[in-house]
Every structure is written in structure tokens, then in C-alpha cells.
Design a protein that fits this description.
The structure holds 2 protein chains of 2 kinds. Chain A is α/β, with parallel strands linked by helices. Helix content of chain A is about 50%, strand content about 15%. The model of chain A has no long low-confidence stretch (mean pLDDT about 85). By secondary structure, chain B is mainly α. The longest helix of chain B is centred in the middle third of the chain and has 34 residues. Classes of the chains: A alpha/beta, B mainly alpha. The interface between A and B is large, with 38 and 42 residues.
């Protein structure tokens, strides 16, 4: 490749790198990626359910509770339902355990009161799994 | 796990074998066309995989049928193209493509799913397909789970993600992202196809990397929608510019993928379609006539899109909720309109694309060029896309501010990429037509010294004799550099017809046939030199020998001479003029030069057997060592005067003492003859009737490589790369002057010099080597 072509490409590549990396936090993200994220990813990539650490902590706790009790369907408390990040992530993360308004299994925050007749079966950090009639 | 992941690549490639089966397997194509064909193959594979899952429903069935098809189509395509599966002409683009693919795959796979849309839509659907065992009504779509799972969205990537998890045997947040890596080859190939126009390539890389940015790896489809829309526009422009059916199929495949990625793919369809119709209606587009096979195959990638539309309606999946009713209040609200315009049209990527586009337009204007119709296609499509997007934001029921904040920047990227592709298409047209000349100048300005040193280094190996004033050796007198230009397949030239024998000014043929540049501009381009620019001459492998050979096969010759006396008088004049005019160099090219070099003395016999050597006028070998002069003479016709050559050889032997020890012995036969009058033997008389016309020029061809210099006694040919134009020996080997300054004729007022004058001239006129 002639010199001028090479220079053009190198200049374009540098310009694009600068463009991509302009916000200073991008470089910080790169450092974090190579220092922490990448080693963990390499350890998890071949594992079933690997990468669930990306989910919010309450969701990770909910998943542990649901899987631990062999739940097939569940419903969530109104407070969870009003937190899009939690409710959406539990729907995606728990699949094929489906959300079901009629299911006896009930997920709630520990600080919440359980519906009448429901019995708390398990608790993990701030999350409670209850069984309702 | 690695095996499972590796199988995905041959699976997709095999499924996409149809374009390779439909398009003619040409023996000689350029890399750019190969890249387009590969892009077509890959995008067809993606689309066919998608269509199979939609049609068959169940993963094991779809994958089983797909694997069978991939095996059959892939093997058939490989068999059909088997003669092209050897060593590529250049490894570099393929290595770059492989490196980019590997790097991209690693970056994508090692980043777990985190983006909202990626998790909530695309890979959630993929998870549904994996755990549901396929894509059926029972998969779970349309249950209105969570916050809008957009179950009506196309399923190409979810299907690939589900298939990946099915093959691996489990789901996690990493491996299904292989679906994204499988989308990488087409944009990589599209960008690599522009490597002959580096400025355009830089813009394309910007469009394909910097505009999609994180959306190339985080699992959201907006980035891939943008680059596939851009790739489709680029391939469409290629096809409209007459670059073959592979471009049409690549465009169709890219459009098929666009329709399978995201709902906004329909907006891309509308934008490109309207733009196409508009330009066609204005008569700005000339539609190439595709082969019937390509025409029939082109709609196939859209099968997945069509099937999904049918399934959506059959399954009653909810739509997006666009309505004109919502648009009316917003259209009457200046604040809402400003919000939409700011969110879409003033997005930073759209603005950056516009600035680049304006810069390119300014450049075109400065060069006296206009936007080509194919550039207008992408330009109009980009604007139409952005306008439709504005309308879509106006027509949605959801809160406008929230919509714009969460979606405008993502979805506007496709419009930005289309605008950039318009700039790419316009700029590459300029690069192809104008910058080859400038590029060659730049190259020569920047690297002239290196280039000439490179050539002279080869020449120096010939021997010190090249510096002797009476001897003209080598090819560097008035060198003509031949630049590469227009290297696409469809612009490939028949080298042998390019310039050779056509005109006296090779530059006249530049635009039509070859690009010629010289270090000092046109005034230096008066070469009688056959310039052969051979890149990597040593790398010319025997497998490449069947390519186009350079130069003319036959020498200019002396016609039957009618008048012996005139011939005797004419001969010295011709010789003198030849020396005055600089070397008339002939490279008699053929496809088997390297073989002959390798086989040594036996090369002559072999050469006689090879096809290109069996010209009608070629004479059989003379049973002695082949050398350059002999080889040239062997190409003389029946009426060529053999004795002239013999005499010149004798003269050179006579002048050998002047050359001294520094003369390379092997060059003696290659040295042009002296110009002194010589008595002719009587027995030559009967063979010299008529008027002497032209002499057979005798100069050895310079070698671009050094390895063969030790075999200089053998004939020395140069095999040109196909896209290197060869300036043939000018058809002006005559007694006329052609503008050379300082010839003895000038000094002597146009009269032939006396022997003493010629001797003086020969002593003082140092050949330019």
C-alpha cells in the first residue's frame, strides 16, 4: 500500500479512536474492562447462567429463591412491579419460570407486608419468597 | 463448546451458497467482486436460516434441515468455485478481515448482556426460543410480559441466539451473543471492498464503527440496522454502477437482514424504495440487466421478513401503536416539532454525517464533479429515513420527551450511516476518476526515490557495463510508471490491448485504459519503453502463470526489402536514430516466463510447446542456447532480416574491448548493436531487395526481481499482474523524431551525422539508465 494511502488510513483510524474515546470516562471504562470485567467474563463464558452478575442484586436473590424452590410460575408484589428495572429483569432472568398472576408463589421485598394468607417460606437478603393460597 | 461455536460459521456460509451457484464462476475476478460475492453468500445464509426457523418452527428440525442444506449448497458452491480456492492474489485483505472478525467476536462474546433493549427484547426472545424449543405460537410471545417485550419485533437475531444456545446446550449471558458476531462479516467485507479508494474506505469505517458505536457489541439492534442499511445502499450503488450481479445479491441479502433486525428496517425499505423510485422516475438511474438467476434469487432474502409478517398476524401479536391520531396535536405544537427535530435531525451523529457529506460535496464541486445518481440514492434514502423517523415519533402515543430521550439517538444512526454512505459513493467515484492521477503523482512524489532505487537496485545487478556511453542497457530511460487504477473486476482491462501499439502518447489512453504517470509530468512521457510495474515479482508463483502476459509478442519487422542499395544506406540511419531516440524496448510477454527461468536451458524447448509461444510467425528453436537476442529474433516473421541482428552482435563483440572488464558478459547479446556502417556479405544481397523500413529493436527487458538475474542468458520476460497496464512498444520505430531533445539530427541540422560526428556523439551522449 502506498505511503499516502497508509497515512490516510492511519489518520482516519486515529480520528475514529479519538472520536470513540473522547468522553474521558470511556478510557476509565476500558481500564475497568481489562482489569475486572474481562477476567470475570473469561471465567464465566462457558458456564450455564454465566453473566447473571450483571443483574441487580435483588433480582439475583429472587432468581436464587425461585430456582431453589423449583417454582414454575410466580407473581411479584406491587412494589416490585412498580420498579421497572427489577420487574423487567426478573421476567427475563427467571425465564422459563413465567410470571403468572394466579401463581401461588409470591415475591416481595422483606420490608413489605405479605398479603393476607401468604406465608413466608424463604428469605435472601432483602427479598422474600412466600406461598399464597 | 468451541466446536459448537465454530460450526456456526460454515453453517451460515453453506446455507448462503446459492449466490455462488447462480453467479458464473469466472476464472479471473478481482478481490472486490469476490468480497461482494462473499457478502451475498453470508447475508443469504443469515436470511435462509431465519426463514427456515420461521417456516419449520422447531429448533432441532430447522437446524437439521439447515445443516443438510448447508452441506449440500456449500459443497456444491465449493465445487463450482474450486478453481478459485487456491492462493489468493493478496492475503492482506483476507487477513485483515479475519483479524477484524476475530477481534469483533472476542469483544462481543466477552461482554455479558447488559443493555436494556438487548436483554428485554432481542435476547429475551432468543431465550424464549431456546427454552421453548423453537419459534411457535407456544413460545411465549405476545404475553405482554414486563415492560413491553416488543414481541412483534423481527426475530433474526433471537433465532440465531436461540440456535446458538441450543447447540451449546445451555443459556448464559455471553454465548448467545454469537448471533451478533455472525452479523459482522458483511460490513467488514463491504468496507474492505473499498480498499482501493482509501478515502472512501475511511468514511465507510467511520460509518460502520463510530456511528453504531456501542450498539455493535451490547446486543441492541440499532447499530446493526444502521450498518446493514448502509451496506445495502453501498451494494446497491455498486450494482447500479454496473459492478455485477454479486453486488445485486449482496444488496438483496443485506436488505433481507435489515428486515429481520428491527421494525425500523421497514423504514429503511421505504426510504431506499422511495429514493430508488424517485431517481428512476427522473431518469437518473440506469438499471443494469441482471442475469435471470440473480433476478430470481434476489427476493429470497426477504422471505424471512414476509413469513414473519404472516406469522404475526396469525398469532395476533400486538403492534407498536403508531397512529396518525397522535400526530395531529404534535404537528401543531412548535415545541414538540422542535423537540423531534432536535432529537432526530440534530443528533450529533447525523450532524457529523452531514458535515462530512457537505465536505465531500465541496470537494466534488472544486473538482468540477457532481454527485452521482448512486450517491443521490443513499442521500435521499438517508433524508427520507430521518423524516419518516420524525413522523414516527410524532405518531406514537408514548410521552414524546421520554421517547426521544430513550430512542432518538439510537434509531437516527441508520439515517446517519445512509448519509455517510452517500458521501462514500460520491467520494469513491471521484477517487476512481481523478485521484488515480493525483494518487500516482503523490505516490511518485513521495516514493519516487524509493521506487527508482528499487528498480535501479535490480539494474545494478546487471553489471557495470550499463554505464558505458555506447551501451544502452536497462529500461530506465524515460521510465514510465504505471499506476494501478480502476481495479474492480468490471473495470479490469485486457492488458495486451491497453496501450501497446496504439498511440504515441500513452497518456492519451490513460482514462480509458491505464493510468500512466511520470515523476516529472507529461513532458517526460515520451517513452519508447515498455514499462512493467510488477509488485512482488518474486511472489509470482507457478500458479499465477496463466495470467495475462505483458507486452507484444511480435517485433516490428523489416518488410521485404526491394532495393539493396537503399537498404545499405538506410541501415546506419536507422541505427543512429534508434540511439538518438532512446531505447526502443520490447518486452515480449508470455505466461510461462517463470517456468522457463526455472527449467534453464530446457526452457526454450518448453517454451515452444506452450500455447502462447505457438504464434503463427514464430520460428522453431535453433538448437542452441537461448538468449535474449535470439529469443527476440525467434519472433521475427518470415520476412524479418536475420542478418541485421547477426551483424549487430558482431559489432558488439567488436566493441567489447571498450567496455572493459566491467561489462557483464551475459549482457553482450542484449546490448543493442553499434551504429557503424558495415560491409554486407554478398550472399545477403539477394535477400535484401526492397526498402529498408524498420529495425528489430534489441534490448533486454529489465527484471523487477533479482533472483533471475543469474540466468540472464535465458530469455527474460516479466509477467505482469493483471491490473498493471503495459505500455507496449510504440509503433514508431522509424526514422522520425518524436520530440526527443538533443539528438544528433538536431545538432546537425537534420542531416545524418558523419561517422566522426556520430562517434563524438556516442562518446558524449551518456545513456539515461
Amino acid at each position: 500500500m502506498p505511503v499516502w494511502q497508509r497515512r490516510t488510513l492511519v489518520a482516519a483510524a486515529i480520528a475514529e479512536l479519538l472520536y470513540i474515546g473522547h468522553p474521558h470516562h470511556q478510557w476509565a471504562r476500558l481500564r475497568t474492562y481489562f482489569g475486572q470485567t474481562l477476567p470475570r467474563s473469561l471465567a464465566e463464558i462457558g458456564q450455564p447462567r454465566g453473566g447473571e452478575r450483571m443483574l441487580p442484586l435483588p433480582v439475583q436473590d429472587m432468581l436464587t429463591l425461585l430456582r431453589g424452590h423449583g417454582v414454575a410460575g410466580y407473581r411479584v408484589s406491587p412494589r416490585i412491579a412498580h420498579e421497572p428495572l427489577i420487574s423487567q429483569r426478573i421476567v427475563e432472568g427467571a425465564w422459563p419460570i413465567r410470571p403468572d398472576p394466579a401463581a401461588p408463589w409470591y415475591l416481595a421485598f422483606a420490608a413489605e407486608g405479605l398479603p393476607v394468607g401468604c406465608q413466608s417460606l424463604d428469605r435472601r437478603m432483602d427479598v422474600v419468597l412466600a406461598r399464597c393460597p | 463448546l468451541l466446536a459448537a461455536l465454530s460450526l456456526a460459521w460454515p453453517y451460515i456460509a453453506g446455507l448462503g451458497g446459492l449466490p455462488a451457484l447462480v453467479l458464473p464462476a469466472q476464472a479471473r475476478r478481482q478481490d472486490a467482486a469476490d468480497l461482494r460475492l462473499l457478502a451475498a453468500v453470508w447475508s443469504f445464509g443469515l436470511c435462509l436460516d431465519y426463514a427456515l426457523l420461521l417456516l419449520l418452527g422447531w429448533l432441532p428440525v430447522a437446524l437439521g434441515v439447515g445443516a443438510g442444506l448447508a452441506l449440500a449448497l456449500g459443497l456444491a458452491a465449493v465445487w463450482r468455485w474450486r478453481h478459485r480456492l487456491g492462493r489468493p492474489r493478496s492475503w492482506r485483505p483476507w487477513l485483515i478481515a479475519a483479524a477484524l472478525l476475530l477481534l469483533g467476536t472476542a469483544v462481543i462474546l466477552l461482554d455479558p448482556l447488559d443493555d436494556w433493549d438487548a436483554r428485554s427484547i432481542w435476547f429475551f426472545h432468543g431465550k424464549m426460543i431456546f427454552f421453548g424449543g423453537g419459534l411457535t405460537e407456544a413460545t411465549g410471545l405476545g404475553l405482554r410480559l414486563g415492560y413491553g417485550d416488543h414481541s412483534e419485533y423481527p426475530m433474526l437475531v433471537p433465532a440465531l441466539a436461540g440456535e446458538t444456545a441450543f447447540v451449546v446446550g445451555f443459556w448464559n449471558e455471553y454465548l448467545p451473543k454469537l448471533a451478533l458476531a455472525l452479523l459482522l462479516p458483511v460490513p467488514i467485507l463491504a468496507a474492505l471492498g473499498l480498499r482501493d479508494t482509501p478515502r472512501s474506505m475511511a468514511i465507510a469505517i467511520f460509518a460502520f464503527v463510530a456511528v453504531p458505536e456501542v450498539y455493535l457489541s451490547n446486543g441492541s439492534m440499532d447499530g446493526y440496522l444502521a450498518i446493514y442499511a448502509g451496506a445495502a445502499a453501498l451494494f446497491l450503488a455498486d450494482w447500479l454502477e454496473g459492478r455485477g450481479d454479486a453486488a445485486l445479491l449482496a444488496a438483496a441479502g443485506a436488505l433481507g437482514v435489515v428486515g429481520g433486525l428491527k421494525l425500523e428496517g421497514q423504514v429503511v425499505y421505504i426510504a431506499l424504495g422511495l429514493s430508488f423510485i424517485l431517481l428512476a422516475a427522473l431518469g437518473r438511474l440506469k438499471l443494469p440487466r441482471p442475469r435471470i438467476g440473480a433476478l430470481l434469487l434476489a427476493p429470497l432474502p426477504l422471505a424471512g421478513y414476509v413469513i414473519w409478517q404472516v406469522l404475526q398476524r396469525r398469532w395476533g401479536l400486538p403492534g407498536e401503536g403508531f397512529s396518525v391520531i397522535h400526530a395531529w396535536p404534535r404537528l401543531g405544537d412548535p415545541l414538540a416539532l422542535w423537540q423531534i427535530a432536535r432529537g432526530v435531525l440534530l443528533d450529533e451523529r447525523v450532524v457529523a454525517s452531514m458535515l462530512i457529506l457537505v465536505s465531500v460535496a465541496g470537494l466534488l464541486r472544486r473538482r468540477g464533479k457532481r454527485f452521482s445518481s448512486t450517491a443521490w440514492l443513499a442521500l435521499l434514502a438517508g433524508f427520507i429515513y430521518l423524516l419518516i423517523l420524525c413522523a414516527a415519533f410524532a405518531m406514537r402515543q408514548a410521552d414524546l420527551t421520554w421517547q426521544l430521550d430513550t430512542a432518538a439517538s439510537r434509531v437516527a444512526r441508520s439515517g446517519a450511516v445512509l448519509l455517510l454512505i452517500s458521501a462514500v459513493v460520491a467520494l469513491r467515484a471521484l477517487e476512481r476518476t481523478q485521484w488515480p492521477r493525483d494518487g500516482a503523482s503523490d505516490r511518485l512524489q513521495l516514493g519516487a526515490a524509493g521506487k527508482l532505487l528499487e528498480m535501479r537496485a535490480a539494474e545494478l545487478c546487471i553489471g557495470e557495463g550499463m554505464g558505458h556511453p555506447r551501451v544502452l542497457l536497462g529500461l530506465l530511460d524515460k521510465p514510465a510508471a504505471v499506476a494501478r487504477a480502476c481495479q474492480d473486476t468490471e473495470e479490469a482491462l485486457i492488458v495486451d490491448n491497453a496501450v501497446a501499439g496504439r498511440g504515441e502518447q500513452p497518456l492519451q489512453h490513460r482514462l480509458r485504459e491505464a493510468d500512466v504517470a511520470t515523476p516529472a509530468g507529461r513532458q517526460r512521457v515520451t517513452p519508447d519503453i515498455l514499462a512493467v510495474d510488477v509488485d512482488d515479482a518474486l511472489g509470482v508463483a507457478p500458479g499465477d502463470l496463466q495470467r495475462i502476459a505483458a507486452g507484444k509478442r511480435h517485433m516490428t519487422r523489416i518488410e521485404q526489402q526491394a532495393d539493396r542499395g537503399a537498404a545499405i544506406l538506410q541501415q546506419p540511419v536507422d541505427v543512429l536514430c534508434r540511439l538518438d531516440h532512446g531505447p526502443h524496448v520490447v518486452v515480449h510477454g508470455h505466461a510461462h516466463a517463470a517456468v522457463e527461468h526455472m527449467v534453464g536451458d530446457g526452457g526454450e524447448a518448453l517454451a515452444e510447446l506452450l500455447p502462447l509461444r505457438r504464434g503463427g510467425e514464430a520460428r522453431p528453436g535453433r538448437g542452441r542456447r537461448p538468449d535474449i537476442v535470439d529469443d527476440l529474433a525467434r519472433r521475427l516473421g518470415e520476412d524479418h532480416d536475420r542478418r541485421t541482428q547477426r551483424l549487430q552482435e558482431v559489432e558488439m563483440l567488436a566493441h567489447g574491448g571498450d567496455l572493459g572488464l566491467g561489462v557483464a558478459g551475459q549482457q553482450l547479446r542484449a546490448v543493442p548493436a553499434g551504429d557503424q556502417r558495415q560491409a554486407l556479405r554478398l550472399e545477403q544481397g539477394p535477400e535484401l531487395p526492397g526498402v529498408a523500413r524498420e529495425f528489430a529493436p534489441e534490448l533486454d527487458a529489465a527484471e523487477a526481481g533479482k533472483a533471475d538475474l543469474g540466468q540472464a542468458l535465458l530469455e527474460r520476460d516479466e509477467v505482469a499482474q493483471p491490473m498493471h497496464a503495459v505500455i507496449g512498444p510504440a509503433d514508431r520505430v522509424d526514422a522520425k523524431l518524436h520530440g526527443h531533445v538533443g539528438s544528433p539530427r538536431d545538432w546537425s541540422g537534420g542531416k545524418a551525422l558523419s561517422p566522426a560526428g556520430r562517434a563524438h556523439h556516442q562518446r558524449t551522449a551518456r545513456p539515461k539508465v
